[in-house]
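Hi D.,

Good news: the full-assembly prediction came through. Inputs first.
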Amino acid sequence: MAKIKPRVKVPKKAAAGEIVEIKALISHPMHTGRAKDKKGNKIPRKIINKFVASFDGQDVFTANFEPAVSANPYIAFPFKANKSGAFTFTWVEDGGAEFTASKKMTVA
Amino acid sequence: MKQTTQFSTISRRHALAMLGAAGAVVLAGVPAYADGAAVAAKIKGLTGGKSVGEGAIELDLPEIAENGNAVKVAFSIDSPMTADNYVKAVHVMADGNPTPEVASFNFTPAMGACSASTRMRLAKTQNIIVLAEMNDGSFKQAQATVKVTIGGCGG
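Then the structure:
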């Protein structure tokens, strides 16, 4: 299976009060539980079901994904830059496995 | 369900697209589809039977999706996003997929604006319904049709 790798894009610098866009993507097949492999066996459901973005330890945005979300789920959302800090992004897979990434943002 | 749509530009474009295709551009309401009932039931479950308003939600969806495996879905909601007045949650649903839910998002005032963008799978031509829950407990809804091209003729 392809390696599960998160990628996020956060502006390094932002002006105070500016609304910046955060983009996050994780490479993941998002098996819906409906597709079959070459032998005709069902591929069990395995998706990223949750994405949480937090800033300095406080959750600011959460997304819940269903199987209808495409493979390599991508999410973009706004954030109002008020102070410098660090984002932590967490993806939760079915079964409870977690993948994280973090990025710093400096507010001038 | 009354569907006074604010997407006059979108529906106008839809109208043009229909000239060449028997597009199922139905803004006449969710319950017209068999699967629409599942969406309607889901909305009822989320709202607790409260009335759902229109407006303030702007959808960004392709009119025609050539590849149903990755269809862009984006929305933005006009909201001040202050502690007293913000959008709490947004639910994206589709009425022609095996299950109606696509994704849901929880917003906080820290975001400063309410919008999100992701990609979804669509099994066939269908309606996308976006339901927004405000912090005061009221609901707003918007909907649009995406025509999904099957096969390689490119729509």
